[in-house]
Amino acid sequence: LDSSSSQRPRRRDWTKLIYSSDLTPDQILSSNKEEDSRESDAEVDEFFHIKKSDSTNDDEMLDQTKEPLNPEALQQWEDEEMLDSIRNLFITGASTGDADE
Amino acid sequence: MTLPSSLIQFSGHHYLRHRLVLSILSGKPIRIDKIRPDDKNPGLRDYEISLLRILEKATNGTIIEISVTGTALLLKPGIISGGPLTHECPLSRSVGYFLEPLIMLAPFAKRPFQLTLRGITTDDHDLSVDLIRTVTLPHLQLFGISDGLELRIKKRGSPPAGGGEVQFLCPIVKQVTTLNFVEPGKIKRIRGIAHAVRVSPQFSNRMIEASRSVLNRYIPDIYLYSDVYKGEDSGKSPGYALSLLAESTTSAIYCAEATSQPGVAPEDVALLATRSLLTEIGKGGCVDERHQTLVLLMMVLGSEDVGRCRMGEPTVRTIQFLRDVHSLFGTTFKIVPAESSGSSNQLMYSCYGTGYVNVNRSLA
Q1: Which CATH code for domain B187-283?
Q2: CB A90 to CB B313 under 8 A?
Q3: What is the ipTM of this complex?
Q4: pLDDT tens-place string over residues B81-95
């Protein structure tokens, strides 16, 4: 039945990630994509440290409900195949997704 | 007077709205510190102060203390009183910013809310009044909150000058019902609202036409409505927007919208909204990302039974919301991959309702 072989071997344990890890919500979601983006603090041995500006500059990440629209990402819908790929989610679409009128 | 044992501590200005809501609903005092301490302009913003003010007006006996610098606040919640209420929203945020938390509180008030909000009705950050009316309020109906639930858009107000006015009417309930929403169904109809104020009324029609050029391929049941507001009712600034929603056979609703930007043609605004809707449809699930927290909150407050809902992966806001729910209500959700979801990343969220009873409700 499933034609695609195991697309993601590692299932994420969301309950554990949310309730019993110290990761911030951003870290949980970003580790979803890339695993090894963490910088080693060991190489910084200068007397003066540049203060990590993550909390001050991104500060105006507003408490907002709508994610900003990303026109570049939305351009994928110019593609006819892409448009047809969700046809099976409509009542008019066949379950296999190859129906055409 | 201080009860340090029951005081719950948070840090930072993020997630302010849902923390205030959870505090008021649970009746537990919270303290939030480190509100933009390193910012050039530290402390609470004008719209956050305004939100605190409206929460103070909508409740009785609430004590809010803000430190001199504005970087810390203490909230000792009172009871949700409701009733008639008018509030001028600052022009830094749309009325959606204020309505979203109030919608979470309103069903549990002493008296039904009759709330009038003035300000910006549609912007890029929060749900527009159109989406709140057509998408958010139907989500409350899933929990048995329906009779007399209404949002009237009296006047529209585009940024920057606003001038809009909406009236929100919400019935009160004793308890919300348990949700069991696991079947997303298939899309059976698409609805949309286009509005254009203080610009050529043709803009609405141009947006509708552009949107139809994409959507017509899917289903015949598409109705995109051009909502006309004239004169005084069209606010103080020019602007236009298209709000779309797709409804499934099981009443799952997906929504998207795009608003006018300088130098962007109405057709392009419409295409943004339309493609964004297709993205939402593609994600599937029974509840879209913007309504995750509302639905999860109502599940927590549901009767003492297991509520279940199928949704996509949690957003950043949802993850923090779940953690804050855990600190204030002690409720833990079980989140497991939804069976029979195929290749998608859909998850099944379930929790045991707290059996929250609206004790504020006045008995006739």
Answers
A1: 3.30.360.20
A2: no
A3: 0.85
A4: 999 999 999 999 999
